[in-house]
């Protein structure tokens, strides 16, 4: 069973209708998808779609960039 993670979209070019920049999405990491440079993202309808991995950053990485 795959664990779900959260990612932030940082680039929606070529996917403006499907993705919103700076929006948090739930993802289902899959090593086979990742080897192909893809990430499975769940949208508001509950459906999952594959997008290029480089369009997102993991939430944990985003938090580490914050400065207080």
Q: N- to C-terminal separation?
A: 36 Å
* CATH second-level architecture: Roll
Number of strands: 5
Rg over C-alpha atoms, rounded to the nearest angstrom: 12 Å
Report the mean per-residue pLDDT as an integer: 86
Largest beta sheet: strand ordering = 4-3-2-1-5
Biggest sheet, in brief? 5 strands, antiparallel
Poorly predicted sequence stretches spanning 5 or more consecutive residues: none
Structural shape = globular
Discrete helix count: 2
Helix content: 10-25%
Structural class: alpha+beta
Structural account:
There is one protein chain. The chain has helices at residues 31-35, 59-64; strands at 5-9, 24-27, 38-42, 48-52, 56-58. It has 68 residues and is of the alpha+beta class. The chain has a single domain (5-60), classed as SH3 type barrels, CATH 2.30.30. Strand 3 and strand 4 (48-52) form a beta hairpin. The longest helix has 6 residues, at 59-64. The radius of gyration is 12 Å and the shape is globular.
List the helices and strands and how they pair.
Blueprint: E1 5-9, E2 24-27, H1 31-35, E3 38-42, E4 48-52, E5 56-58, H2 59-64
Antiparallel strand pairs: 1-2, 1-5, 2-3, 3-4
Kindly list the characteristics that best describe this protein.
32% strand; SH3 type barrels; alpha+beta; 5 strands; 68 residues; 2 helices
Short précis:
This protein is of the alpha+beta class.
